[in-house]
Amino acid sequence: MSVNENLTLFSGITTFLFIVISFFEFRLNGYLRSHYQEINDEDLRQRWHKVMRMENQWNLFSWVLILALFILPDNYLLLISCILCLLETLVTHQMDQLKRQMQNQ
After folding, report:
1. Dihedral (C-alpha) 12, 14, 20, 26: value to the nearest 10 degrees?
2. What pLDDT shows up at residue 69?
3. What is the pLDDT of residue 14?
4. Contact status, residue 54 vs residue 94, Cβ threshold 8 Å
5. Measured between alpha carbons, how far is 97 from 99 in angstroms, rounded to an integer?
6. What are the tens digits of pLDDT across the range 16-74?
7. What count of Cα atoms within 13 Å lies in the side-chain half-sphere of residue 55?
8. Read out DSSP for the chain?
9. Could you give the CA distance from residue 10 to residue 66 in angstroms, rounded to a whole number?
10. Residues sharing a CB contact under 8 Å with residue 9, sequence separation 6 or more, in sequence order
């Protein structure tokens, strides 16, 4: 396989991972928004607002990166798809931690 084929394969895999993680992020978002009223602890409410603000900002920024995938040359395809996957994972991790804290209160 050539270098370009390897880059295309790796960027395809990371893009697929991004889509899978986005599915979990979407489900977490729905859960967190629907259970907001059940939060009794004020610190947990503040954390909820912080995490959801971060998630909303990430959604906007991720669309910029997704558009960049189509606009920029193929040389940047792997880099951008890796950044997308990494940041999506970090945001989803924060949301999952918040969900666990909400369930343990």
Report:
1. -120
2. 85
3. 87
4. yes
5. 5
6. 999 999 999 999 999 999 999 999 999 999 999 999 999 999 999 999 998 988 898 87
7. 24
8. --HHHHHHHHHHHHHHHHHHHHHHHHHHHHHHHHTGGG---HHHHHHHHHHHHHHHHHHHHHHHHHHHHHHS-GGGHHHHHHHHHHHHHHHHHHHHHHHHHHHH-
9. 16
10. 1
Between CA 30 and CA 39 the distance in angstroms is: 15
The Cα–Cα gap between 79 and 63 comes to 15
Give the separation between CA 16 and CA 85, rounded to whole angstroms.
Answer: 9
Question: Distance between CA atoms of 33 and 26, rounded to whole angstroms?
Answer: 11
Amino acid at 38: E
Taking the C-alpha atoms of residue 18 and residue 65, their distance in angstroms, rounded to an integer, is 12
Residue 16 in tokens: 């697929």
Query: Averaged over 4-23, what is the pLDDT?
Result: 86
Q: Which residue has the tokens 């959604």?
A: 59
